[in-house]
What we know:
InterPro entries: Cupin_2, GPI/OXD, RmlC-like_jellyroll, RmlC_Cupin_sf. Keywords: Metal-binding. Residues 57-122 form the Cupin type-2 domain. Pfam families: Cupin_2. This is Cupin domain-containing protein. There is one protein chain. This protein is mainly β. The protein is 9% helix and 39% strand. The strands form 2 sheets. It has a 6-stranded antiparallel beta sheet. Strands 7-6-9-4-11 form a 5-stranded antiparallel beta sheet, with no helix packed on it. The protein is globular and about 55 Å long. The termini are far apart.
Amino acid sequence: MSRPPADLDRLVHNAHDIGFSDLAKTGLKGQQDQGQVCNLISRDLSGSDDLNVSLGRILPGQHHLCHHHPDASEFYVVIAGTPLVHLDGSDYRARPGDGIYIPRGTSHGITNDTDENVELVVGMSKPADWEFVSDE
């Protein structure tokens, strides 16, 4: 039994073709979330029904607000840079190659207090529509 060919236009996406967009959340005191994201695998792009994967970029001096997701777990894989990752009140100096698991409900954020860009692979356990609850 032969299968139809894969729909590569739906299954394969490249960050250089899509580009990055600025994060658009607002903190508890009206502060702007900082950083950029390029969605690569999602419900809308890929038809995924179980996960979302993006590339994230935090520029020097930027801070991705501490927040949590009551309905989804998340992970980061650090590709470049050495950000300060905030996890439920603890800070961790990440480095390239680190995989960081963030269980649902865990407060987390990232500060790039260095002079180099931070690049991350970011994954969510839902394909879309997870809740973002600001903790700061």
